[in-house]
């Protein structure tokens, strides 16, 4: 059966009640680049009112409406208090995508904390996965959801003092009850560093991926797919988010709600990417996913509709087998390597013909694949190696096709 070294997908507790997904081969790590860049950076001090207007009007593209907000109210309140009393706040990094269009590279949690405070609303922790689901379906955060107390609560500042000490004078206040301090808050400025890559021109956004990877000023590390989903945001990425909430898919991976750090979306990207462009696969797998995500921005509506239907056709096949066929025997966790190979093997012929004739799946074939020695060897160390990716695909095709 699949070894414990196989890539697995499960859950545990991280950051309180936040779910976490597991992989043990490190294949999702972003590879260091040693290119030299010609980059210009310019500092700008925007006041809070301007920042909130930019978030609402669109100049600031914040992946926060796609990535879950992860701060608690105490941490967000300390940030707001720092702004109110004039303490320096870590600078925000923005990437200039186009004229008056900026991608937030670092500082998303801070910006969203400020935005939520001005709106007087704070997302309930238990509802954040559901909020993400709604955003995935709608493509934006509906005003009625922001106003709904089932999803959000009033954002009153939570600033408990040290034991025996005096509480902050802002404790319990919200944006509307700040009084004269509201004007002070609106006029406070935060340093924004705007970055633009001048060279290499043929890979104009590679430096931004590097910056995403290396920055850690916000205190909550971004994961590879969070970075990828922001940097290469497209209609294709929106479709992946939609596919990620399909009930059959959620049942297959064994998690009711989407992962906070988009690991499940990365699995979909990986499976679809290898099906569409696997013949051009080159390690490391992280770079392959980056390249494919960038290419996928050019897919038109017809192509996107077809990929969505192809995934649906695969899920229909999945409903005819036990989900245990995609799980590691010892741990019961979802096997990414198994899913990737099976999806690609079952869907490749259909994709080439632009049909929906996905290969049938049987419990016997999946069990045989999981216990196949060659397949097991290809799921061990270096799971992203080109030879291992090719071997898993070849074994899956052979065994799934066997009568």
Automatic annotation (TrEMBL):
<feature type="compositionally biased region" description="Acidic residues">
    <location>
        <begin position="1"/>
        <end position="16"/>
    </location>
</feature>
<feature type="domain" description="GmrSD restriction endonucleases N-terminal">
    <location>
        <begin position="49"/>
        <end position="232"/>
    </location>
</feature>
<dbReference type="InterPro" id="IPR004919">
    <property type="entry name" value="GmrSD_N"/>
</dbReference>
<dbReference type="Pfam" id="PF03235">
    <property type="entry name" value="GmrSD_N"/>
</dbReference>
<feature type="region of interest" description="Disordered">
    <location>
        <begin position="1"/>
        <end position="26"/>
    </location>
</feature>
<protein>
    <submittedName>
        <fullName>DUF262 domain-containing protein</fullName>
    </submittedName>
</protein>
